[in-house]
Sequence to fold (638 residues):
Amino acid sequence: MSKIVIGLDIAGGDFAPNCNFEGAKLVLENLSDKIHLVLIGDENVIKTGLSSYGIDENAVSIFHAPEVIEMGDTPMRALMSKPNNSISVGLGLLKAGKIDGFASAGNTGAIFGASVVALGTVIENIRPCMMTFVPRLNNRDALMLDIGASADSKPENLYQFAMLGHTFYKYIMNVENPKTGLINIGEEPEKGNEVVKAAYKLMNGSTDFNFIGNVEGNELFSDKADILVCNGFTGNVVLKLCEGFYKLSRHFGFSNEYLERFNYENQGGSAVLGINGAVVIGHGISNGKAIMNMVKFSAEIVENKLPWRIKEALSSNEQ
Amino acid sequence: MSKIVIGLDIAGGDFAPNCNFEGAKLVLENLSDKIHLVLIGDENVIKTGLSSYGIDENAVSIFHAPEVIEMGDTPMRALMSKPNNSISVGLGLLKAGKIDGFASAGNTGAIFGASVVALGTVIENIRPCMMTFVPRLNNRDALMLDIGASADSKPENLYQFAMLGHTFYKYIMNVENPKTGLINIGEEPEKGNEVVKAAYKLMNGSTDFNFIGNVEGNELFSDKADILVCNGFTGNVVLKLCEGFYKLSRHFGFSNEYLERFNYENQGGSAVLGINGAVVIGHGISNGKAIMNMVKFSAEIVENKLPWRIKEALSSNEQ
Fold:
């Protein structure tokens, strides 16, 4: 079997480029039977980095992209003024089929926006979104989406997030008929804001996924739902609050296997769902381990043909 | 100094009436120098309860209200079909000045709705809201509002929540110029959904409170803001997620003084802000300790003339 080729943005992350060399080294040590890395960024920076991290140049590919989008840059402005930035170059390689997936811990807005523009959406009327994992106490992680790609969502968007989530959970988590819940402030269908109430009506009785109703904030860690659908505003607040709790627990020296599942290092980042390609965005503060897991997660998405599965699911729904 | 008279709804709570007798007993044991209780509910139930809990009938007052609004009742329907329910009777006593404050762990929607109707809002154009405390690591609790009184909020509502929160924090927490933040998904003014972006513009530079900008989910436990403004949907999800985390920590046997501040038993419930009267709603699962703290919190609100202070602050803003 040929290896999965993942493009890694060397310029991405608060601690770039070093975090990416550390990550690349871990990928080579742990996943080289399965993954081939293409390092994307300034060639000189890459060669110097490989040498100082003791990585054999022949073990990876290098693709030159001299410009850098900084973490604080305004996404669209930066993408336009720096056409040879590592994100755009990486997405170009993905579109051209030179790599199978692209992974970056860089500027989230820039990666998300450029992905949608460069690769296109799987169907015409869809708003792509981003996902995260929510550790459940007695079960594997739940999937939550959207986590901030859009701040405002219409009921139809939430319905599509449910379809994206269903397909993700089926093919990546290998659960045949996962339970989809709507994050809300009460159990009853008539609870919530106008958008969520309308989304409930759309989702209830759907044959596209297995809708189990509303899920409240204190139920996210339970087995109630495998997929947690919400608008990007709510999802982002929940995601960051979980980070806050994880930090608190570390602060107090509380630690166990379950809590470690909240650690971003182990989560692999957030896949962009609804576009024609495998793109994973890592946490800005990624260290080497987080970068390795981001690359690994990208490869899982490629291996399970997720973008193609999603296109298939949503295209059949359109007809 | 005369005692503060608090009306306690005997029929309120999942474990009513017993939780309320337990709570009343704790109030008598710990706070009787300051608080006089009026127990509101079915007279026979109250007399039987007092006797079986060994409470002297002469230590409290009793006000007969034979009907009960159940936790699962549809609020408005129940309020109309049961005019002699303990909530409406209690609010009637409050309006008539027979009690100084009203506390109930009953049906939240019914208490909130009946409070607004019976007591009226402090100014004409205001949406009352509910609050909770968010424990901060290195400081006293932050105040978060709204936590679910309204699921949809306009920018003007969020602005008013900030004024309510500022007044609360100034007079209840005794902080002269507390910092007000807006819960959002990024630090920059242009981040967030349309409502939050518009609210930021309204709040920025306000002389009604000390606006310090956006606060993200992972910053709620930090010192960044004393007052956390959000719509009721977001606030409710955050509140319940905090409950979920507290439960997780208990599940794992993690415990310390800080974590105990997340325990609803110690928080005293949620005050209804923006109405002409001191009303506190307790958690449905309240036990005796939680009921005592709910009564204590009600008395603090009365003692610090909070509804009147809020009316003053908002009325001067109207002119």
